[in-house]
Every structure is written in C-alpha cells, then in structure tokens.
Design a protein that fits this description.
This protein is of the alpha+beta class and about 450 residues long. The chain is built from 14 helices and 12 strands. The relative contact order is 0.07.
Length: about 450
C-alpha cells in the first residue's frame, strides 16, 4: 500500500508533466508566430524590391502575383484592374500552382481571358470596389460564375484545391484602382490571426507599387505624345520656313532694286518707306533662317564641315564690321587679344562665325549707352581658346540666366527689342556643343551689363 508521501510525489509528477506540456505548447505557438512574422517581413522586403526595380504595370503584376503565391503557399494569386467608366474588372496577371494550371489546361480555360463586367450588379464585387471592403468567399465559384462554362466551373470547383478566395481592393488617392485575388488551399477560419495579419499587411505595398507603375506609364505615354507633337512642330516649322524663304528673297531683291532706282526715280519719302520694308524683310529672313537651323538640328540634319581655321581673323573681322552699327547707336566696340597667336581651332568656320555674330549683335541691341569689349585669349596649359564680349547693357538676373539658352527664351531683352526670334542663343549653344565647346554668360544683375563667353579646344 502506497504511503502518503508516495502519493504526494505522484501528484507532483502529474502537475509537472502538465506544466511541461503547457510550456511546450506555448513555445510551439510562439515559434510558429515568430516564423509567420519573419516570413511576412521577408515577403514585404521582396515586394519593396520588386516595386523599386519594375516600373511596367504588367511585369510588376506578374512578379507580385508569383512572389506572393510562392511565399504564402497559395493556389492562385492575381491582379485585376478596375475601370469605373465601364464598371468592369480586367485580369492583368495570374500566378497558379501546377495542379491548378494543369486542371485549367484540361478544361481549356484561361482565367486572364475572362473580364468581369457589370461589377456594380454583383454583390461581392460591388462591396469590393465601391465600398472598399475585402471579400472572403468559398473556392472560385463566386468569381467566375457566369463567365466560365457551367460544366467546367463545376469541375473546377470540385477538383481545385482552392478552398477560400480572398479579394482585397487596391486603393490610391483617387479610389479603387484594382483588386488583389488570393486563392488559399484551406478554409479561412483555420488561419491563425498572425497568418491573417500577414496576408493583409501586403495589400498597401501592392497598391503603392501598382499606383507608381501606372503613374510611370502615364508619364511615359505623355512624354511619347510630347515627342510626337514636338516632331510635328519641327516638321511644320521646317516646311513653313522653306515656304517663306523664297518670297522673302523676292521682297528683298525688288525693294533693293527700287531703292537703287532700277525702276525709275523715287522720292525721298518713298525711298524711306521702301527702306523700312527692306529692313523688315532682312529681320524676317533672319528669323526664318533661325527656324530652319533649329529644324535641321532637331531632325539631325545639321551638317558641319570641320576644318582648322584662324579664329582671331573671324572675331576681328566681325568686330570691325559691327563697330559701324555700334557707332550709329553711339556705342564703342573694341577688340583685344592676349597676343598669344595663333588662335586656331578645328570647326565649321561659317557656323562659328554665326555664333560670334549673334552674341555681338545681341550685345549691341540690348546696350543703350557705353560700349562693348571683345576679347580673345589662349590658355597654353589647358589648350583652350576663349572669346568673350562684355557690354554695358541691361544685365541679367540669375533666373533669366538659367533659361537664357532655351528655345524662345528672350528674358528682359524681349521687351526692349522685339525683332528677334528668341532662337539665337539656343542655336549658339547647339552649335558650340557640336564643336565640343562651352558657352555661358555672367552678369552682376540688372543694369550692370553682361559678359558672354565661348570656349573651344585649340587645334
């Protein structure tokens, strides 16, 4: 017969056994929860990486669907895009288990072929996209009912391992943009709270990634449209400029002949009027030539004849020619060098001449009093030749300088002189860039003049 102490020991052993079992169960539960948390964090990290590296919506949806299905051990994962105008859900991408994929092949059914119409008339989908409420349903029946042949749908329902379908609205600031579908191979009630949380935690990440992808696509589409419009604009400018060139040449020719008296004597008053017509046609011809040059550059048709030439001679001759125009305005124009000739560069002399002429002409136009100094220097160490024109004109602010070399940008000068095209400095930058040179401007502010620089490699 057992003693009292023996009975007490047996009771203690039973209690200890019960406590050990409880502790083991608790540890197992905690380990399981920790495993789910770690798995969720790993999945979220992968989804973030996908969203950063994939910008095309279809490719993004395919990668997300496949990653989510594999990591969560699902039968199917897919993404739908919602169109509120047509009240429809369009399948974008699906990832399926091998057994579900094989079953669908036998049935001759492709899930991506089935667009869900009249969403608002179907209770589950109406809640999903119009009330932004997640939907839990049994199997696949509720989703493709009426879309897949009845006999195939029955077989799919019986033989598919998809026990539960979860559908989550993918929301951006405008509303529901799509739906994430997840097909589980077990009932929703059997999932632990941590597993349910794991599934719902990925929804915002998927929504943000998809929204970003479609935003990028919209930007690309808009950019492509702008490129097409820009090309059409360039072609139009080229055509229009060519059409204007011939009549302008005739106007210049005939007005010149009239002033020379080739058609008989004219009065001084008539000559003055014809002179204004001639000057206007010269200005308009310059605008047309600028437009043609821009068209050639943007269509890749600008040709350059690169040969060594004496940059000093070009700059000096232009300074001499333009000094006459400057004197008529009461301005001085001087030319200086650092006496380190030769100043030889390799390039298209006529186009470089056009750049220098344009910069000097601008300085004269926008200077009311004072004068201009053009300088030519050579750095023996860097093998650079730099030309500059400094004026005492209206000057420039930092904001103006930032956009000065863009098309049709004329800054404050446009208010003072309206005869230009707004393309001269843009063309100058393109031509200098084609010569692997550098062009820039410096100014201490409005009313303090400006200095334009052009720099090339010495030949």
């Amino acid at each position: 017969m057992a003693t009292k102490n023996e009975n007490l020991n047996k009771a203690d052993d039973g209690l200890n056994s019960h406590d050990d079992h409880h502790i083991t169960e608790e540890l197992y539960k905690r380990n399981l929860e920790l495993a789910v948390v770690n798995k969720t964090l790993f999945l979220l990290r992968k989804l973030y990486q996908i969203s950063l590296l994939t910008l095309e919506p279809l490719a993004l949806s395919e990668k997300i669907s496949n990653t989510v299905r594999l990591e969560l051990n699902l039968e199917v994962a897919g993404v739908f895009i919602f169109d509120i105008k047509s009240d429809s859900l369009s399948p974008l991408a699906f990832s399926m288990s091998d057994r579900l994929s094989d079953l669908l092949k036998k049935l001759g059914t492709v899930l991506k072929d089935n667009k869900i119409l009249n969403v608002s008339s179907r209770d589950s989908f109406q809640k999903l996209v119009y009330e932004k409420t997640p939907v839990v349903s049994d199997g696949l029946l509720e989703i493709w009912d009426g879309l897949i042949a009845e006999k195939n749908l029955e077989k799919l329902t019986k033989e598919s391992h998809t026990k539960t379908t979860l559908m989550f609205p993918l929301v951006n600031e405008k509303g529901v943009m799509g739906v994430l579908l997840l097909g589980l191979n077990r009932e929703y009630e059997t999932l632990s709270d941590h597993e349910k949380d794991s599934i719902t935690s990925i929804i915002d990440v998927v929504a943000i990634a998809l929204d970003k992808a479609y935003l990028y696509k919209d930007l690309q589409d808009a950019n492509d449209k702008l490129k097409t419009l820009d090309k059409l604009k360039t072609e139009f400018l080229s055509l229009a400029s060519h059409q204007l060139r011939s009549p302008l040449t005739s106007i210049k020719g005939y007005t010149s002949m009239l002033m020379m008296g080739d058609f008989g004597a004219i009065s001084d008053k008539q000559k003055e009027a014809i002179s204004h017509v001639f000057d206007s046609s010269v200005h308009l011809t310059k605008v047309v030539e600028d437009l043609l040059s821009v068209s050639k550059i943007e269509q890749g048709g600008m040709q350059y004849v690169m040969l060594p030439f004496d940059f000093e001679k070009v700059a000096k001759d232009l300074a001499l020619d333009l000094s006459i125009i400057a004197q008529k305005k009461g301005l001085t124009l001087t030319f200086e060098t650092d006496v380190k000739s030769p100043y030889v560069i390799n390039g298209d002399m006529e186009k470089i001449r056009q750049v220098i002429l344009n910069l000097m002409d601008n300085s004269i136009k926008y200077t009311k009093e004072g004068g201009l100094i053009t300088r030519l220097i050579k750095d023996e160490k860097t093998k650079k030749i730099r030309w500059s024109v400094t004026d005492t004109g209206m000057g420039l602010t930092e904001n103006i300088i930032e956009t000065l070399f863009q098309k049709f940008s004329r800054g404050q000068g446009g208010k003072m002189n309206t005869s230009g095209s707004g393309l001269g400095l843009y063309l100058a930058k393109q031509i200098v860039g084609a010569h692997k040179g550098h062009i820039w401007v410096e100014s201490k502010g409005l009313g303090k003049g400006a200095t334009f620089y052009v720099e090339f490699n010495a030949s």
